[in-house]
Amino acid sequence: GAVVSQHPSRVICKSGTSVKIECRSLDFQATTMFWYRQFPKQSLMLMATSNEGSKATYEQGVEKDKFLINHASLTLSTLTVTSAHPEDSSFYICSARVPLISTDTQYFGPGTRLTVL
Amino acid sequence: QKEVEQNSGPLSVPEGAIASLNCTYSDRGSQSFFWYRQYSGKSPELIMSIYSNGDKEDGRFTAQLNKASQYVSLLIRDSQPSDSATYLCAVYRRGGADGLTFGKGTHLIIQP
Questions:
Q1: Each residue of B64-109: pLDDT tens digit?
Q2: How far apart are the two ends of chain A, measured CA to CA in Å?
Q3: Residues A79, A111, A24: CA angle, nearest 5 degrees
Q4: Is the CB of residue B97 less than 8 Å away from at least one CB of chain A?
Q5: How high does pLDDT run on average in chain A?
Q6: Chain B residue closest to A51 (CA)?
Q7: pLDDT for A98
Q8: Are B105 and B112 contacting, i.e. CB atoms less than 8 angstroms apart?
Q9: A8, A63, A103, B19: which is deepest, by most CB within 10 A?
């Protein structure tokens, strides 16, 4: 399958700080990437769809000014959690579609575990 | 609202037996269906995808889809302890929101 990487894998920060998470497609170009969030014992919830060269599309209830998404190249999307608070502590996972394989299948990165103190 | 329902389990199956995981979905317009495996603390790993009614086999895994009943299942034959994980059912509707809609997952335990 296609390889998607994320960095960092784990981050601990103080309340009020901003955290940037990177998502990279390593062996393919991803015009579309997705950001999901997973709280303990819950399922993955889509936060936003990130399109290269255009604004992200956010799901209902996700604050676009708090979760800034930038997709500046075909291999990199970033999610910045601004002014993080303890309730933002979660497992953030990005994914990408590989059009040459399937227009529907998504491959996931390894995830970033964010803990806000 | 699109929903994907799964029994959270845990589902306990003896080693070597067949594990059967079930999923129902509410959006009749869903066209693509996926099973992901997620180990604790890790991100989901794609196991199977299925698009048409019927069965699709890949090694020890068989996915079954019944669009009329809005039901999709995953069978794991010759279950191994390494199959112990949470299995997530996900559906996708082309032309709708781009992301996948996930169920909460079924926690599968394979007993040695």
A1: 999 999 999 999 999 999 999 999 999 987 665 578 899 999 999 9
A2: 36
A3: 60
A4: yes
A5: 91
A6: B98
A7: 75
A8: no
A9: B19
